[in-house]
Amino acid sequence: AAVGGTLALTTMRDLLRAIAALRIGAERLGQGDLEHRIPVHADDELATVARSFNEMAERLRERSAAIEEQRLLSESLLRNILPDPVAEELRREGRVEPRYLPDTTILFADFVDFTRLFDELSVDRVVRLLDQMFTEFDQIVRRYGLEQLKTIGDAYMCAGGLLEEGASHPVDTVMAAFEIIEAVERHAAAEALPLRVRVGVHPGPVAMGVVGIDKFAFDVWGDSVNFAARLEAASEPNRINLSSSTYLRVKDFFTCEYRGRIAIKEDRAHDMYFAVDLHP
Q1: Which pLDDT belongs to residue 178?
Q2: Averaged pLDDT for residues 178-201
Q3: Are 159 and 149 in contact (CB under 8 A)?
Q4: Which of helix, strand or coil describes residue 80?
Q5: How far apart are CA 135 and CA 242, in angstroms?
Q6: What is the band of 211 on the pLDDT scale with cuts at 50, 70, 90?
Q7: Bridge partners of 99?
């Protein structure tokens, strides 16, 4: 009787320990601890259950790792399309609230007669050139705290004052414009090609938002955007064309050349200036 009682108590103790291990494993798994495993010391029915539990936990861990990898990839792609604060708002809220921004600076840059290169160069080389130059433009824009908005064919658009507060964005944008022209001149010399770019810069209010469902587009709208595009069209190769309002914001930092009143498409004439260089 004593031996039988001892065996019963030992068996009951082992059974209770095994059940407790299963209960703790289920709780840990429910809390998200996918690394937890139940120790297996015997070869009975409960051990079989423990092994099955461990196999299930391993499959869940592998599936969770794959889901996390896809989530990180999706976030990376989203942040390549949208600025970080905008991407975070879209991820958190499922939408981006449109905003009115009273003071921004818009820059348009467009290559001069770039489409003629298609008659002289292979498609691969043309696309490679655009990729190299726009990549360098992105680096310049990021360095000055501006936001790249979009490329339209061989045109490039960016803006300052969208997501960072401060009054320096007109100066930052003109500084970026000088570096963009330097980059184009450098590529033109390296490739032995007649690469030139016109630039227009104009500050003013815009509406900002994200449109689209399948393909998100971060963009700005307003008369300031349209006028910046008109300034670019009225500029000259490798020159930075400024509106009078841009000139008033940057004249203490740059030497500027007054161009007179220049007529733009479907509008009256406006005072315009070329940014020449930094003040000594």
Answers
A1: 98
A2: 95
A3: yes
A4: helix
A5: 24
A6: confident
A7: 208
Q: Give the count of alpha carbons within 13 A of 238, CB side only.
A: 12
* Alpha carbon distances (Å) from 74 to 20, 68, 78, 92, 135: 40, 10, 6, 14, 21
Give the integer Cα–Cα distance in Å for 241 and 273.
Answer: 6
Taking alpha carbons only, the member of 184, 181, 199, 173 closest to residue 254 is: 173
Which residues are 241's β-sheet partners? 200, 274
**Does an H or E element contain 254, and which?**
strand 254-263
Q: Which pLDDT band holds residue 62 (cuts at 50, 70, 90)?
A: confident
Structure tokens at 77: 């792609």
User: Which is higher by pLDDT, 153 or 210?
Assistant: 153
276 pLDDT higher than 60: yes
Position 81 pLDDT exceeds 70: no
Report the pLDDT value the prediction gives residue 16, as an integer from 0 to 100: 62
> pLDDT tens digit string along 2-23?
776 667 665 566 566 666 666 7
Positive/negative CA dihedral, 249, 254, 260, 263:
negative
Instruction: Classify each residue of 151-169 as buried b or exposed e, where b means 16 or more C-beta atoms within 10 Å of its C-beta.
Output: eeebbbbbbbbbbeeeebb
Two structure tokens written together for 270: 């406006």
> What is the helix, strand, coil percentage profile of the chain, to 5?
50, 25, 25
Residue 41 amino acid letter: H
CA neighbor of 130 nearest in space, from 147, 153, 108: 153
Token readout for 47 is 């051990």
